[in-house]
Each structure stands twice: as C-alpha cells, then as structure tokens.
Amino acid sequence: MESLGIDLKFLIGQIVNFLILFGALSFFLYKPILKMLNDRRKTIADSLENAKKIEINLAESEANAKETFDEAQKHARRLLDEATQIANEQKNKIISEAQAQSDRIIDSAKAEAHSAKDNVVAEAKKEISTVILAALDKIVGKELTDEDKKRLTEKAVREI
Q1: Which residues contact 2 (CB under 8 A, 6 or more apart)?
Q2: What's the rounded Cα separation, in Å, for the pair 113 and 116?
Q3: Which helix (H) or strand (E) holds 62?
Q4: I want to staple 153 with a disulfide (CB 3.0 to 4.6 A). Which of 14, 48, 129, 134 is the partner?
Q5: In this predicted model, what pLDDT tens digit does every residue of 55-81 receive, in sequence order?
Q6: What residues does each domain of the chain span?
Q7: How far apart are CA 15 and CA 66, in angstroms?
Q8: Roughly how many angstroms between the first and final C-alpha of the chain, as a whole number?
C-alpha cells in the first residue's frame, strides 16, 4: 500500500482517531440531541393529546352550558307562566269579589230606597187620610163613625 502513497500506520491512526471522535461525538452530542428530540417529540405529542382532550372537554362544557341555559330558560318560562296564571286568578277573584260587593251595595241601596219609598208613601197616606178626614168633617158637618171614616179614607187614597 505504500506504493499507492498510503501509510498504513498513519491510516490506522486516522481510523482510530475517527472512531474515537465518532464515539465521543456520538456519546456527548448525538445521544443527548436524540434524547432531546425524542423528549421534544413526546412533549409535542402529549400537548396535542391534551389539546384534543381540552377541545373535547370544551365541547362537552359548551353542551352542558347550553343544556343548563335551556333548562334555566324553561324554568324561568314556567315560573313566569305560573306567576301570570296566579295574577290572572287573583285579578279574576278581585273582580268577582268587587262585582259581588257592588251587587250587594246596589241591592242594599235598592232595598233602602224601596223601604224609604214605602215609608214616604205610608206617611203620605197618613197625612192624606188626616186631611181627608178633616175635609169630610167640614163637608159633611157631622161626626162620621170610625168605620165610615176608614172606608172613605181608603177609597180616597186608592183614587189618588
């Protein structure tokens, strides 16, 4: 090999140096870089997996929030309907009570008016009968019996 210009000792020294350099670089540089790249790859994969889990959890949370919101709206609508119904019932009850009370007041007023009318008519009849009796006494000039007075008074009152 010397004829080719290759020194065997020098070549073996170069090979040994290359292997030592390769081993040192492999041990101190290549393996830590590979480990760092693998760790980085694992971190990225874990992050992607966590992102998918977070996305799924977010979708579930949004669905739960929407469901909760819908339930709250239904409950609020139901409460509003119940309150409206109760208010309408109270309104109808108050109206019917007021109507009944006004009917009682009107009936009472009518009864009082009728009673007052009857009292006025009775009083008027008494006054008229007294006037009639006095006029009969003057016209006839004699004392009439109680029976005649009564009969004539009733006849005059009926005609009036």
Answers
A1: 8
A2: 5
A3: helix 31-140
A4: 129
A5: 999 999 999 999 999 999 999 999 999
A6: 2-159
A7: 72
A8: 172
Q: In the prediction, which pLDDT does 10 show? A: 87
Provide mean pLDDT across the span 19-42. Answer: 92
DSSP H or E stretch at residue 26: none
Three-state DSSP class for residue 13:
helix
The CB-based long-range contact list for 63-71 (8 Å cut-off, 24+ gap) reads: none
> What is the Cα Rg of the chain in Å?
62
What are the DSSP calls for 65-78, one per residue? HHHHHHHHHHHHHH
Average pLDDT, the chain: 88
User: Which amino acid type is present at position 115?
Assistant: S
Structure tokens at 57: 């959890």
